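To fix ideas, we give here one paired sequence and structure record:
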Amino acid sequence: MELKNDLLLRAARMEPIERAPVWFMRQAGRYLPEYRAVRAKHSFLEMVRTPELAAEVTLQPVDFVGVDAAIIFSDILVVPEAMGMKLLVEEGKGGPKFPDPIRLYTKMKSLTDSGIVKKLSYVMDAIRLTKDRLNGRVPLIGFSGAPWTLFAYMVEGEGSRDFRHAKEMIYTRREDAHFLLRKISDAVAQYLIAQIEAGADIVQIFDTWAGILTPEDFQEFSLEYIREIVRLVQQHTQNRAPIIVFCKGANQSLLEIASIGCDVVGLDWTIDLAEAKALIGDGVALQGNIDPMVLYTTEHVITEKVAALASRMGEARGHIFNLGHGILPDVEPDNARAFVRAAKNAYEGLANKS
């Protein structure tokens, strides 16, 4: 089915565009009253595992906020669960947890990427259903966590301030760490390929915890695995879907990230967009990078910040508007809509000033 709005795909491929596309990480979420209405009737994991519910909340930001892409509603931790870990999401008790974290080699050996696509078939079913309901309005984004970020959660058991156990393993049991990272990478590559085959138009790899690693460790324990995933996905899908790589907090390695073969480099809000563009050049597109906290201000401030970002980029080509991380759950929906409106007009306003 031909897309009516393919701005995101053209931007990702560095093709000419009339304006930069805009979407939000975590855009299908608690800031929307329509999402909360569905969530009130179902548990989080029930929503993730039920294609009809996942499709419904995936479409909400397109319908109610006006973004230029949908991102399939799921969670990065479904991959470790499919590999054999028990995943718990206890209502009102913080984020997802693995009650039996992977600390011993015997537990690592018991994990498997065999049958990963079948075990995660509910995600592919949700993608197919969402594509049908989108009817070509906007592209659909698939995603996965990066191996290092999944490793950090799997070894720690939950989110952490310092991920002590994960980092202790890479420093004292390097071979074990690489053994586990290879297993995760195989699973992630299969998962992303399956999402594209199910209909995802573009995919993003999230390395949320890249920033806790030293530059040297980031290269060894994160980026090399992402590089291999990018290669496998492109090889098996004939580059059908662009790939976004977002490594939060890894600004010291942007040039290296841009060199792994991905189409888009996602930026957090702690680096200047113009500096990133000057460093990386025109080989890949850039995504980001407004501070998520800007959405707690006013429409005037939001519009100013978006316009300033466009000015630093200089041109719409090769730019995808987004936040520097996910949209937060208590943001006012009107402020999200103000961001989208400002992004859609930003480069037109820049042209009018020149």
Summary: The CA atoms of residues 36 and 84 lie 30 Å apart.
